[in-house]
Amino acid sequence: MPRSSAVSKPKPARTLAQLADRHALYERAVQDPEGDVKFFARTYRKIRGHDPISMREDFCGTAALCCEWARSAPDRTALGVDLSQDTMNWGLEHHIVPAGRDVASRVTLICDDVRAVKRPKVDLTCALNFSYYCFKQRAELLEYFTSVHAGLNRDGVFLLDMLGGTEAILEGNTDNDHGDFIYRWEQAKFDAFSHDFQCFIHFLFPDGSKIYRAFSYDWRLWMAPELRDLLLEAGFSKVHFYWEKTDAKGEGTGVFYEPDYVENQEIWWTYLAAER
Description:
Number of domains: 2
Structural class: alpha/beta
Strand content: 25-35%
Number of helices: 8
Strand order of the largest sheet: 3-2-1-4-5-13-10
Distance between the termini: 89 Å
Largest sheet: 7 strands, mixed
CATH architecture of the largest domain: 3-Layer(aba) Sandwich
CATH class of the largest domain: Alpha Beta
CATH superfamily of the largest domain: Vaccinia Virus protein VP39
Order of helices and strands: HHHEHEHHEEHEEEEEHEEEE
């Protein structure tokens, strides 16, 4: 009788979640580097009367914004600061090196605490995607704002974004369908007394697979008056709050202005700028 031979089983197909890159998904779902660069340049020019050259991105992550800033004009330089070397390495591989030698030569990445880096001084510093919410104590956030102030040129501007609205303090999920994946923002826990809140990003795919807690955040939800007071205490001379204009359907137009009064909404996001 012939000897029996073991038949190898085919390997199961990898799920869409296993094939996906969480950094690439995050950038598609959350970031708009080109739009941010345009807003930064326009806002700085309106405040200072001339164009900014050097930009620093705190909590830069994959440094997509740094790369876009350097690519947007031949004399622009970008400095990115983040605590995760692995994440910045991903940005080097996927953004900065592919952008070419000229762009790459004008982007510098530093792995360090954003409060510790004060040189070189820059025209514009930004902290986006509510990243500075990681500073949950008033003294910590004041220390950070003070270090930003010290790291700006004399006519520097600090740009941040912030979150608000009645639903910003509620626990629950918000889904955004991007076609080949769903971006889910989960506010898992909110403390009404401290405004500490815990949030997660999940990515869901059509085959039923998901990247659960692709990103996790332990933050404090800071209010607009608190931020203004802390920025002024840190030495900034003036704070501007912006609001996005909407079209007839209530959709954002990408155009921002400084309102005299804003009626609260269920959820909102916007920029603020602090003059050195």
